[in-house]
Amino acid sequence: MENKEKLDQETTQSIEEQVAEESLQNETELPKNEGTQPENQEVKLEAEVAELKDKYLRLYSDFENFRKRTAKERIDLIKTASEDVLKELIPVVDDFERAFKASENETDAAKIREGNQLIFHKLLRILESKGLKSMDDLVGKPFDADTQEAITQIPAPSEDLKGAVIDVVEKGYVLGEKVVRYAKVVTGA
Question: Does 133-189 carry CATH code 2.30.22.10?
Fold first, then answer.
């Protein structure tokens, strides 16, 4: 609040200085033999200052309204940004619920496993459609600190695996070009 009052005072001072400079220029431009009434000119300048203050206050309030509106819109956008992803994930949750109910009575583990794999692949398709990709085929490739996190080092079984990934403990994921989760790997020493 103090910043606003300080800004208002500074702006008012600068406007008054500009008006004073313009009035000095106007006085110097008037011929000396013409009699100007100082009171008339003073009233005119006061009216001009009042008009400029009014313009400034309106402009300032418009800007404040704009700033508040855009901040509110940004907050609303952040709150609802994941809405479309969540809408697509709800059917997967429904599928899991149906699978749990069906597995209560099922004795054949192969059918349960097959149903779980179908749901898993459906979930992967949804995530891939949103741009999420897993980091696959890391075993045997050189360690990359930009996309991988080395949990531990073990002696390399062969010379070509020194400094390379030997095992992947947890897959990494990339969204577009950004790493969402680093792959946790075991490297060869």
Answer: yes
